[in-house]
Each structure stands twice: as structure tokens, then as C-alpha cells.
Specification:
The complex is a heterodimer of chains A (about 525) and B (about 180). Chain A has about 525 residues and is α/β, with parallel strands linked by helices. Chain A has helices at about 10-15, 15-30, 70-75, 95-100, 115-120, 125-130, 135-145, 160-165, 190-195, 195-210, 225-240, 270-280, 305-320, 320-325, 360-365, 400-405, 425-435, 445, 450-460, 465-480, 485-490, 490-500, and strands at about 1-5, 35, 50-55, 60, 85-90, 175-180, 215-220, 255-260, 300-305, 330, 330-335, 335-340, 350-355, 375-380, 385-390, 415-420. Chain A folds into four domains: about 1-100, Glutaredoxin (3-Layer(aba) Sandwich); about 115-325, NADH-ubiquinone oxidoreductase 51kDa subunit (Rossmann fold), CATH 3.40.50.11540; about 335-420, Ubiquitin-like (UB roll); about 425-505, de novo design (two linked rop proteins) (Up-down Bundle), CATH 1.20.1440.230. In chain B, α2 runs antiparallel to α3, α2 runs parallel beside α4 and α4 crosses α5 (about 70-80). The chains are: A alpha/beta (about 525), B alpha+beta (about 180).
Amino acid sequence: MKIYVPRDAAALGVGADQTAEGLVAEARRRGIAVELIRNGSRGLLWLEPLVEVDVGGTRMAYGPVQSEDVAGLFDADFTSGKPHALSHGVTAEIPYLKRQERLTFARVGITDPRSLEDYKEHGGYRGLAAALAQKPADIIAGVTASGLRGRGGAAFPAGIKWKTVLGTPGTQKYIVCNADEGDSGTFSDRMLMEGDPFVLIEGMTIAGLATGATQGYIYLRWEYPQAKAALEAAITAAAAAGYLGRNIQDSGKAFELEVRMGAGAYICGEETSLLESLEGKRGQVRFKPPLPAIEGLWGKPTVIGNVITFASVPIIMDRGGEFYQHFGMGRSRGTLPMQLAGNIKQGGLVEIAFGMTLRELLYDFGGGSFSGRPIRAVQVGGPLGAYHPESQFDTPLDYEAFAAIKGMLGHGGIVAFDDSVDMAAQARYAMEFCAIESCGKCTPCRIGSTRGVEVIDRLIAGENAAKQEAILRDLCETLTYGSLCALGGLTPYPVISALNHFPQDFVKPVRASSAAG
Amino acid sequence: MSNQTSRRVIPIQVEPPSSLSATERSAVLDSCARLKKLPGALLPILHSVQEALTYIPKDAIPLIARELNLSIAEVHGVVTFYHYFLQERPGRHVVHLCRAEACQALGSVALEAHAKATLGIDFHGTTRDGAITLEPVYCLGNCALGPSMMVDQRLHGRITPERFDALMTQSREST
């Protein structure tokens, strides 16, 4: 009898360990032999802890299962897939899951993330096998043909980045994975690293073969200890089986991989700050050029990319660039794992081809707000993304379509707010966040963010409001054009979008909200 | 890397005066000895020191600087840049409360006020009984099940004021 209980951090946060312990103890008490598998999360996070039972090869879902529900589940004979109040039928048939197009997340929640055997049984390392049979330029041609763009937020074509590194001579080259997923509302990197760490390792290894890089680093945020454990276990297993090391699968090619921990600095998600941090320094942004592809880590040619970008490479190698390119719309090809977060009834991970509208995602998948009140504003793309009012909910999820409405898809995080939100407080927070997280290099970001908080305070207090608004807009323009990186450059997005779409929140005696924190 | 080993430094002071205890000192030196060969060793060393001592004591900085052949200013600059590195000895448990947008959408601003009021401290403060240090954090990657917080290295989701109080009681009772 196989029972699955996720070890995903989100599941653990709502008691998955206690549920797992309860299941094992209760099974023992009843004399039922149980094999417990700690899988990743299926991404139906409102159902966590989601317990699955294997009934004749079909997985049946029950959730959310707390430890106190366990005895009742056994009484209802859930091990035979019998109905119970928490039953959701066959997992794969749950509409939220069935409507998705899972390419990058194909195995997450299904396999045992600690088992290399399981990974291979589910199509793992087929991409690497294909890559090992190709010349570097051909691997890169495949990635380019797929249309894959960086999934961290900037959406730069991955193939072009790789080609630059391949074409730059260097005695040592590096592959760096940006796993400093700091955007609020995003957790796809975490879920992938915890639920299918081998696919990231495989993707980075392929990038190494394609560019001649022999050393890789995964720069992981400290807030993700479960991901660290999963990655380190997977790296050990992959190295023991000859998938990492000096001679990968007897090809004569080398690739080593190491996990490095960040220390709580949002700015280190910016690629050049991350490189500084990896070098053991303050995470201060570098000037570009030189691009990291030419002078990256320790001045050497470096491919730096997001977790989801690397993790999308194995399936592209295995099924071909054409297959991946077939998904999506316009210049946004393939799939994007969207993350439904904040005040949402059915929060979780939705991997779909580009092109679905925000409204479909919020209501068809998300089921509306968690509080039951109307959704008033949605922030897309993390703390530097714009706030969108209901009138923009029909925008398709596509890089260019969001750019056209002065927003950005970023890393695919969607944070819903109900009608109790105070948008002036959200605008103020955006400036405050920029002040806290600024690396200090550019004056508009370092000082302008603090001045921004003060101006917003005066604006909402109604001190010569028209003048304050003009100053705020002018300040935002200075931030946009006077900052080296996206932190200073994009902080105006949430501020100005809040001001433009929700001006009524800025003119008032402030409602007794806690804008001052 | 290579230019670091070839750099010549004339030591001004062999061993700076220090308030570190013998155990603290050896924990710092152990971390350095174990990790200093790594390229970009400073962050791994600081993580290791904080894991051993719960914070980075001020007097650990000159020692680390000496071991890595860096200036005290360089090490100090790194310690103070990163929010995760604590410069004061924390309480027995460190609570990281998420302040980011997804948690705000589920009432984290009120939760934060509750936490500060019941613990009687602000962010970066430690309760008078030395049990709990409260730190802000900007996203724990649990954005569909907020408000979220971490107690030591353990994540908790769907935190209500009642659950917060229960977790604090539980923490105070544990060592």
C-alpha cells in the first residue's frame, strides 16, 4: 500500500509531518502495511496536506488531511479509495490539475524527489542523453528553436545567452542558477527544487555541455531550507551515479555542482548582485556591460539563469525545440508556471501555455478570493510588478501584452487583494521595500525610495496634495531612468499603477488602516 | 582567487584584542579552517559561524578577516549588508514574520501588530525573558497559504493571532 504525503515546505507549514506520522502510526495500529512516500506538492496548495493513496496504480486524493482526520480516513477505508468528506477522487482528474499543461512540472508531486531511479523511470535524464550525442552548437540551436526565454522575470532568450558564453573564450566558465526567488507571490522555484531537484541538475548539466562550463553553482535563498536538503541529496545521488563529476556518463565531459546559500537580500536576485554575493562580497549591482556572459563570476564567461529556465531545458532536449515552441502565443513560447497567491480561495501552481487571461486564472482556477469578498486589485510579477484593477483582468498572460499595459509578468506570481485593500498603503509599502532592500549603489534608489515614503505620507495626509502627487510622479521618473537595475527601475510600477488605477485611495482622511505598519 | 593568494599583506596587529570566549573563538576558527579554501568563502563561513553561535559576534569579524586575508571593513561590510546575519545575540528562538504583499493580502499587517504587542518588542528585538527574537522577512515562498512565519528554521502557514500565540507558548516551553 503506497501512501503519498508531500514534504513540500508549504505542506509542512500546515502540518504534513504530523499527518504523515499519524498515518504511519494508525496503519501500524490496524496492522496495515504502508509504504510512505514523501513526494513534492501537486501544487493544489489549498488542499495541503494532500494525501494520496495508490489504488491499483491510480492515485486517489484526500485533503486537506490533518492528523486528527487520519483515524476517520481509515474507518472509511480510504486505502481502497473509498469516499470520505475529504475525498477528491482521482488526483489526475481534479479539474485544477487536469486543465494544466505540465511540461516543466511534469514530475513534481508524482515522483519521490529523493529517488534517482524514480526520476529516470519518469523520463529523467533523457534530455542529457540527447545532449551528449550533440555538438554544443546544436544543443544551443535546439534551445533557441524552442523560443525559451528566461523565466526569472527579464525574459531574455536563453539560447542567445548560451551562444554568447559558448563563443567567448575562457579557461574556466560557469553555470549559475539564480534560486534567490524573492518575489512575493512566487514559489515555483521552491516547489520545483523540493519536488523534482534532478530536473534542475539535469538542465544545468546540459547548459554546461553546451557552453563548455565545468562548474555550476545554485545560489539558493536561506528561506528555503527544505529545498537545500532536497538539492543536496539529489546532487549526492547524481554524482554517485555518474551524472555529475569529472566524467559524465563516460563522455569525458566534466560538470560539478554546488549549492550556495544567500543571506536575506532581495537584491541578490538581480544577476550581477548575485555574482558579487557568490564571490563573497556585498551584493551590489554591477555595471553592464560587460555582460555576465562575457565577464561573469570571477570575471569568467557565465550563464546565469533562473531555476525554471534550466528546468525547462531537459524536456526541450528530449522532445525537441519544435515541441516546446508549439505552446504559447506571439513571442512568448512554451509554458509558464503561474503562481496564484495572496487572498485567493484556491491558491497554487498552474503551469499553462502563455495566453490564458488573468480573469480565467483568478476565477476558473483560483475560485475568487479567500475571504469571499470581491477581488479589487491584483499584483502581477512580484513586488516590482504593477497593481491591476478589474478592468485589466482580461489581459492575456503574455510578456508583451503585460508590457503594453505598463505591467510585467515577471516570474509569474499573482497576488490577489480583496476590496479591503488600501492601495495608498500598498504604494507606500513598495517604496519602503525599495528603501530596505536597495543595495545603495544608485542614489535615486537609495535615497529616492525613502523620500518616496515621505511624499506618499504627505500625499495621503492631504498636505498640498496636487503638489505632492507631482513630486511623486517626478521622483518615480528619476527612479525609472536613474537606476542601474530593476529594483530602483521598477519600484515605480506598483506605485504609479496604484496611483493611476486607484486614485480615490490617496485622497481622503486615511481610513483607520495601518499604513504606518 | 589566484590574485588573492598572491596578494602580500603586512599584518599590523597579529591578534586583535577580543571578548570572544574560548569556545566561540574555536567555533569561528573551525569554520574558517573548514571553508576558507572555497572560492568566495566569506558567506559560507558567516553561515557556519551563525549556525554555531546563533549570531556573528562583533569580535569574530577581525578573526575572520585575518583568516581570509581581507580587511575588517570588508568583512564588516558583508555582515551588515545581509539581513539574515544577526549582529546581536538573539533569543532562544528566532521568529521570522513575513511582511511581503501576499501575506499582507491575508492580514499580515494586523498580525504583525499583534505579534509586537503580545511580545512587547519591535522587529529586531528580543523578549525580556530571552526566549524570542522577532525579525521581519520578505517572502518565505508560502504565498498561497499565508500569513506565514518561520520559527527557527520551521515554516508555518495560515497564521492567525491565536496560532501565533500558541506557537509562541510552545516555543517558550521548549529549550
